[in-house]
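INPUT
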Amino acid sequence: MRRARTSAMRLSALAGVAVLGMVLAGCSGSGGNSSDPQSQNLDGKGPITYVQGKDNSNVVRPLIAKWNKAHPDEKVTFKEQSDQADQQHDDLVQNFQAKNVHYDVVDVDVVWTAEFAAKGWLQPLTGSMAVKNSDLLKPTIATGNYNGTQYAAPQTSDGGLLYYRTDLVKTAPTSWDDMMKDCTIAKQAGIGCYAGQFAQYEGLTVNTAEAINTAGGTIVAKNGKTPTVNSPESKVGLQRLVDGFKDGNIPADAITYQEEQGRQAFEAGKLMFLRNWAYVYNLAKTDGSSVVKDKFAIAPLPGNGDGQPGASSLGGHNAAISVYSKHKQTAHDFVEFLQSKETQKFFLTQGSLAPVIGSLYTEPDLVKQFGFLPTLKKSIESAVPRPVSPFYPAVTKAIQDNSYAALKGDKTVDQALKDMSDAISAADTGS
Amino acid sequence: MSTETATPLSSKRPAPRASLKKRQHGQVRTALWLILPTMALLAVVIGYPIVSAVVMSFQKDAGLDPATGMFVQGGFAGFQNYTHWLFQQCTSASGTVACPPGSLGAQFWNAVGVTFLFTVVTVVLETVFGFWMAIIMNRAFKGRGIVRAAILVPWAIPTAVTAKLWYFIFATTGIANAILHVNVLWVSGEWSSRWAIIIADTWKTTPFMALLILAGLQLIPDEVNEAAKMDGASTVQRFWRVTIPLVKPALMVAVLFRVLDALRIYDLPAILTSGGGGSGNATTTLSILVVDQIRQGPNSASALSTITFLIIFLVAFIFVRFLGANVVRTQESQQKGTL
Amino acid sequence: MSAIAGPATTQAETSALRGERTTTAHKVGRRKRRSQSTRTIVSAIVISLWCLLPFYWMIVTSFRDVGYTFDTTPWFTHFTFDNYVTALSTNLGNHLGLALLNSLIIGGVTTVVCLLFGIFAAYALARLDFRMKGIVMGVILGASMFPGVALLTPLFQLFTSWGWIGTYQALILPDISFALPLTVYTLVSFFREMPWDLEEAARIDGCTQAQAFRKIILPLAAPAVFTTAILAFIASWNEYLIASQLTTDATQTVTVAIAGFTGSQPHQEPYTAVMAAGVVVTVPLVILVLIFQRRIVAGLTAGGVKG
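OUTPUT
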């Protein structure tokens, strides 16, 4: 008895530490709105800072050096972040919350744009801040648009491509149904037919969104929160993937595939069709272990059967201006510089980053070096951005979880889409 | 013993010879000053965050203003963040609904189940294997030192590295499938991903269990076993009637430590199965769920982390109150060799 | 064996050695139990292999050419040092070298702070009699079982608003939350077993309390403090949950660096380089642990610390 009591006393004393802490705890204040920062410093000129994740292929530094030479009074300093997406995100949040005036131009992943915009941290690119560039690929612009306002300017892009084996199929299928018909060839050859990224992670959102968008469905409405995914079109799209798994046209292994596993399977000759990003192209041509070096080609993603290519999801990054910047005019000019043709070309040649300017995709010398460009252009032209939502983490989870359950056969497609819709709807309430 | 006196360590004066009562009073004061810094530091690094978490857990997370599409502060939430998790209540356009699949809120009880599953299975496995290892190490044979060195290796490897190592071992084309001649998708099957975690965790932490049990075994006087043997007790009988009762206090402490540690499991599922594992939440433990929630609504995450803390607290309480795991006392008597 | 431990051997350590003594005690009866000892040896081999083989596989893979990542030959083939070069290079955006330094700094500062605070508390708890002792012990023990996530949520918010994410203090403070209880707890166990009579004896011989402490107790306590330091350092070195959420590149620790190791391509999984990085991070630890295994086993079993 005594033992029990003293033990209980000890445990309850634990709470004592908490009480001690209570004395120390108190304020964790949240800043109020003093005056609208969106309308301030619009014509401010002077030195600014550009914030971006790790510059692994040394693209940004030479560009900034070039800018600084031409603009000695508006020098840009490069603030290099981590190369982990989560860490970049948190670093931006931390500095925006602190209203850091030195985070002038920031590089944001396309899927964060809405969140930062809704928090009031991004300068709307309207009026004198508008970034004009008529040569931009249209879908890339949409990734920076939240609730009808442009908050970020596309800087780099990426789209999905269909890799296919030229020794097995003469021409690439232009529709999903045609591709499924070709699967008999793969079966005869004893290899898997089609794979994308179906492991449960961001790649599955990309692939699900592509299937739904290609079939004419949508996921959320323009306001970024009302779900529109529970529709007959979406059902057609998701059903295609589910059927693919069911009849073995998509090998069972593919439920574990991220980009790399798919690439490895394709390079090992175990897949006839593969949906992947542009990076695979040069690797599959040169990799020592690739057995398909001269036996593959690329095409836009297969479409809905109406002659149009499929709707790819978009990768890439946007450039945005902080509302707290003191030198927004310079920031604006620098964003235009990032979008300029020369800069975009440098991004491509130096960093293998897909440009957002259409005309670069057809320049002969570039096409020679990057054989995937013409196809990638088609892919991006018919692409649809992933849902632009301030609750993107919740939205992508809603898509992933339910799509995955459907692909595994744990849920009907109808149920999966209904749950997806409900989960997106519940996402918007914060808790 | 009672003549001991202590003054602050920095004291330059010899201890004053004073009356017993005065000395004891001095001891209390000295002890207070020696312990205070540690308690104050603990209050800063644990107490303060915990109180902040509780305060936050009663605030609403920021939501969208439908008119502007901008985030606005949430205000006081009452117990809403708690009911959100415990009763799976989500708010949507049409009012309060059951959290739909694919939202974090829907995963709470699943995460509780997964956490307890991991805890029970790993602790049972670790106890059984740990006992076996301890018994072997308690025997006299050549190369005993090698075994003890060997079992320290998994313990010394950081869990993050362990996770990567087993991730590689469990790769589809990895060595585990090659040895077993199977083609299991370890990190993506529902139960295979759970087993992957359980196996890796058992590998990593059984040594710790074995060492604690060994310490208990070594305190059993040889005479006790010899006497039992004289009385004609078989090995099995000796194990159940002599070894187990004598090791029990040490064992309970070891189990308590492991249970509390297993309840907060994070590193392995986070790295080995990228959080979710098969079916997306087959290996989502409470800690994983908290981390998933942090960026989606810190106040709601605070409620969840507070719930997690209370669950662990409750389990500890049950262990101490009903199962007699008296850590302090057991340690003391182990020290004195009077277990 | 006991020669290594030297005169400073504490009883906690001796109890870990006790098995060794049974070796001689049972020598006589050994012959009778040959069949049992064969089984023991077999068990011992199985246990050792189970513990060592995964580690061995990590080492083998770390020296294997990246093109043969999934080769299942159980011994060293396609031997290369390239993976170590890759693991330590910063070309792919990995910073293992920096992470090692960060972990050293964070672990080092945490350990020193915990010892500075913990030694006094442990001395009081082991040596002095006072009423609240059990409660203080309970609080410290409870603190060591505290779930990291319960600290993480508020700290994430607080450090974000203070701009502390990506600073050393953002990791050192949470590390103290589990390393300090561990330090106190282990030290108390060690201190209880110190031959305090010697202190008394020295005082009778005319030493002041401070002198007795400095000349007699401190040298005797050194091994215990050292062992505790190793345990606290390892605990901090291995921390992942908090570090994974509150760091940036600049303060990334080894566990975070390894978990997020990136390959030459955006989606590539560089297994061999990760194994090499794992070896780099682990081998110093394993060597340290093996050298001081007696002390560490004693510390572990005395403090019952988390693994």
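end of record. DSSP finds 16 helices and eleven strands in chain A.
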